[in-house]
Design a protein that fits this description.
This protein has 522 residues and is an all-alpha fold. It is built from 21 helices and six strands. The two termini are 39 Å apart.
Length: 522
């Protein structure tokens, strides 16, 4: 399967979202694969560390294992996006990456579940004690890299196949599926799976891995069957294999303004999200009665908080989309069905509100003294987490589609009247004073497709992980120096509180975001 490089401006109509509406049933089936992806991820995040500890890997080395996440996100998603944008397979541009990545995900889960058995098939257990550790570490890296490829391709399918006016609904369904996958994965950890499914394995992890494979393969199979991709039909230009990589660099420097603004908010927001994801359960354990902790220092309150967080995030993505008000270029241009309060419930503003809520919750951690109260705060963060799983992807998708359509119909840009865009322009920006301000890099817009845009967007999510690791280490060092690192130092709590500063910046940027509207196709 060869990758052919073509100019993004030459991509056919298949690369833009169709104007035909998609039924709710098909939207559900199209996004069903996110359940399998997040179920598999929940198994890794919830049970990976205890499993590696049981194999004998030290805690400092486990931290190196989890570098696989940011490294794979930084490298894999942009590359998958760039190469899939110009793929000429008869199966389409995205599904080949879902299939190939999915097979590697299944292989990695099998290696994780049966690391000991695989090694001991070839070596004596006394002479190969480190063998299972090496196999498991390799499998976790393979899982992170391959599942990122699958996730990227599934996100691109939503942008490619869903019309502009349904992007919010489609991404809302994707967010709901993410929550269902996470919640189901965490819930499985509570059950005695060996008693329920003894024929699937003799340990909790083995049964969980078999179930993860079944859910992963089943949901992605449905997504691939319902996704009707139109293969690229134009003859590709001959180009060197690394041209898509150069396209990533070029696009990174020339993103259209609406997309760049979403990325800027994500950069600051995820600098706060990663400390929460890394340390919230450890912070809960620090507030728990020491007699209730396991030998590894874990608390039963941590998994409970994550489960509640996932359930609340699902509820958030079910409710909030119906409360937001979207801009439209249809007759009577402006906010659709706009009551007096409509300007306060646009998508960027709702995102900003949830970021403010997240910041306030992190500030209140200073008053928490008990584990149940800590669980309540972590659970409440499910509201901004649900918004984060839906709003930025909707804004990115809509902006990508609108820019692609603008590139295909340059005449639709129109001319300016008193420094503004004419009403017949496909793209309208609420704060633009001129065409140059609204689309400062218009030529680059024609070279952007959903794959490369989503890949770059993911880089703005992953880079903060390295920043947060550095900042957290500095905070831990300072607290350890002045407070001796004792139990009362609340180092994890201070890391969470410092996140509120980044959230304040992210919220301010979200409040000032450019709003994009689209001509109604109906």
């Amino acid at each position: 399967m060869a990758h052919a490089s073509v100019e993004y401006s030459q991509l056919p109509a298949a690369s833009a979202a169709p104007q035909r509406s998609i039924s709710t049933r098909d939207l559900i089936l199209l996004t069903l694969g996110f359940i399998g992806i997040n179920f598999a991820w929940a198994v890794e995040l919830g049970f990976g560390t205890p499993y590696l500890l049981s194999l004998g890997l030290s805690k400092p080395l486990i931290a190196l294992v989890w570098l696989a996440g940011p490294l794979s996100g930084l490298v894999v998603q942009p590359i998958v996006g760039a190469y899939s944008d110009s793929l000429t397979s008869r199966l389409g541009r995205r599904r080949p990456f879902i299939v190939a990545g999915g097979l590697l995900v299944v292989l990695s889960i099998v290696l994780i579940a049966y690391a000991k058995e695989i090694v001991f098939l070839f070596y004596d257990s006394d002479k190969a004690s480190s063998g299972p550790i090496l196999v498991a570490v390799f499998a976790f890296y393979l899982l992170d890299f391959s599942i990122n490829a699958v996730m990227a391709a599934c996100r691109m399918l939503v942008v490619d196949l869903v019309p502009f006016d349904q992007q919010q609904l489609a991404n809302a369904w994707a967010g709901r599926m993410n929550g269902v996958g996470h919640s189901t994965g965490y819930l499985m950890g509570y059950l005695d799976l060996v008693s329920l499914f003894p024929f699937l394995g003799d340990t909790q992890l083995k049964v969980l891995c078999v179930l993860a494979i079944a859910v992963f393969v089943g949901t992605l199979l449905v997504t691939c069957l319902v996704a009707h991709e139109v293969p690229l039909s134009i003859p590709p230009k001959k180009a060197v294999w690394y041209k898509p990589l150069l396209d990533i660099v070029k696009a990174f420097r020339t993103l259209p303004r609406p997309i760049q603004e979403v990325c800027n908010v994500q950069l600051f927001a995820w600098t706060a999200w990663f400390p929460f994801l890394f340390y919230s359960t450890a912070w809960i354990a620090s507030k728990a009665d020491p007699s209730t902790l396991t030998s590894e220092g874990e608390s039963r309150y941590g998994p409970l908080a994550l489960l509640l967080n996932s359930l609340i995030s699902i509820a958030t993505v079910l409710v909030l989309p119906g409360l937001t008000v979207r801009k439209s270029n249809s007759a009577g241009s402006g906010l659709r069905n706009s009551p007096d309060w409509a300007p306060y419930l646009t998508l960027p503003r709702v995102w900003a509100y949830t970021l403010v809520l997240f910041a306030l919750l992190m500030i209140t951690t200073i008053s928490v003294t008990t584990a149940p109260w800590a669980v309540a705060i972590v659970a409440a963060v499910g509201i901004p987490w649900g918004a984060t799983q839906w709003i930025p992807f909707t804004l990115i998708a809509e902006s990508t589609i609108a820019c692609a359509e603008e590139a295909r119909d340059p005449a639709s840009l129109g001319s300016t009247t008193d420094g503004g865009l004419e009403d017949d322009s496909l793209l309208r920006f609420s704060r633009a004073d001129s065409i140059e301000e609204a689309v400062p890099r218009a030529p680059a817009a024609s070279q952007l497709d959903s794959g490369i845009v989503l890949g770059i967007h993911n880089m703005y999510i992953v880079i903060p992980q390295f920043i947060s690791i550095l900042l957290s280490s500095i905070i831990f060092a300072i607290i350890g120096r002045f407070d001796g690192g004792g139990a009362d130092a609340d180092a994890f709590g201070w890391v969470l509180r410092m996140s509120s500063l980044w959230l304040a910046i992210a919220a301010a940027k979200a409040f000032s975001m450019t709003e994009i509207s689209h001509k109604s196709s109906h």
